[in-house]
Structure formats: structure tokens, C-alpha cells
Write a structure and sequence with these properties.
Two copies of one chain form a homodimer.
Chain A (H helix, E strand, L loop, with lengths): L13 E3 L1 H10 L2 E8 L2 E8 L1 E3 L2 E6 L4 H6 L3 E10 L4 E13 L3 H10 L12 E14 L4
Antiparallel strand pairs in A: 1-8, 2-3, 2-6, 4-5, 5-8, 6-7, 7-8
Chain lengths: ~140, ~140
Amino acid sequence: MAGQLPIVDHTGMTVMPFATCLSRLRATPVGRVAFAQNGDIEVLPVNYQMLDTAVVFRTAEGSKLGAALQGKAVAFEIDEFDLTRRAGWSVLLQGRADLVADETTLRALDSIGLAPWPAGIARPEWVLIHADTVSGRCTSNW
Amino acid sequence: MAGQLPIVDHTGMTVMPFATCLSRLRATPVGRVAFAQNGDIEVLPVNYQMLDTAVVFRTAEGSKLGAALQGKAVAFEIDEFDLTRRAGWSVLLQGRADLVADETTLRALDSIGLAPWPAGIARPEWVLIHADTVSGRCTSNW
């Protein structure tokens, strides 16, 4: 059987399979959390890990970010570009954010040992983004 | 007079001056447009240019993106990371998006010659994001 033709969306980008999106999410160390707050859109880079199909990252106790994200629709985006070839890909995970309160999940999270980059500020809390949808696109020359 | 101490925000990141944010926006070829749509948050990488302090990029005629962005609060984010040093910076421009209809502005935009990366789909329309705020942060070791 011949290989499947790539699926191209209305913008001319090739649609990436779910498995590829997930493996890129697992292999990428930094992504961007985007959410609406007081009528504005916020976008914040974080270093993160995947826990199954959820994005997890640390935040400071009582942080504005944690409170702002609680229960809210958020997006998490990763991407990569090659300027010379004018090529690139991106993956978008959309879902809901929650501050983790469950002790079992917290122990699992503390054991993965994710350390935030900015030093000197304790970040004992964890934000978890449950994925509702995961989608990815790449240029045809990637 | 001694040099100024860097300003550090509540997350331990160093606040970047406006002039630095603007020069990074002018030097970076790809950024991410984030906006709310039907209760979800969308994040979409685009190659772009700056027109004074506005972000401009191309989109297809009658595109969903153009219609979705029209008059809406959007954010535009750029960043850079060095995984080895666990260092990075990001700039966030927040403002409103508009499809450009004014003939004079369109001529100015067409003359800057920005070509979208995905080939084969015409993108005769321009989206312009007027900046309301521009802010940037970096790790102390950047």
C-alpha cells in the first residue's frame, strides 16, 4: 500500500499526527502558556514536563499566575524554526489549568524533579494543564 | 554615578527596558499571535515585521484568522532560550489587531516585501497589531 498523502490545511500547512504532536511535547523543554486575563491575553514561557498527556510546570506559592490560571481555558504552545530553510512546526495543546492539590499527584510531580530556571524564588506549587485538544502543523519542507 | 541595579519582578526575572524589547521585536523574524476565540485560546506562529511599534504579518483573503482577529485584544510573543545555561528572554506585545484597509498603509506594507513561509496560498491581506503595552523579561544570567 502506498504511503498516505500529507493532509494540508487551508493555510498551506501540513497537519501533524497526534502521536507526532505528543512526542514533540515530550521532547521539548520550554513552551508558552497563553490565557485571557482582565480582557488582555497573557503569554508566558515556562520550562515544563509532560505527565501522560498533561503539561505540568511549577509556580510560586500564592502566585498571581496560579490564581489566574485556576480552572481557566488555556493554551500551551511549542514550536521550532529553521530560518535558512523558512521551515518550522508548532504544536498547540488546549485545555484547562488546575493548581494540583491532590497529595498523590503532588508526590508524583515532586519526584520528576522539574526545576524552574529563575533561581531564588521558591515554586512549591504545580500547575497542570489537562489536554482537551492537541494539534500540530508544519511547513511542507520540514 | 554607579550603574542602575536591574529590576527583578516577583517571579525572579529581570525586567527588560522598553528600548531593548523594541529592538528584539525588530530583530526577530518569527513570533506567536495569541487570542481568544469561542472560549478557547489560540496561539499561532507567524513570520512578521515591525512597522514603527506595530507588528504586521500577512494572511489569506477572507481568512478565518483575519476575521477572528479583527478589532480583538491579542498578544504577540517572541522569545529565545539557551538550554545549556538555563537562560532565556521573552517579549510580550499586547494590543488590538486590525485588518489593514487603508490604501496608503497597504502600499507601505507591500513595499516591505514580507513573504509568508507556507507557499502556494496567496496572502494579500495584512494584519496589524497596534501595541498598547510592550514588556519583556529575561533570566538574570542572560
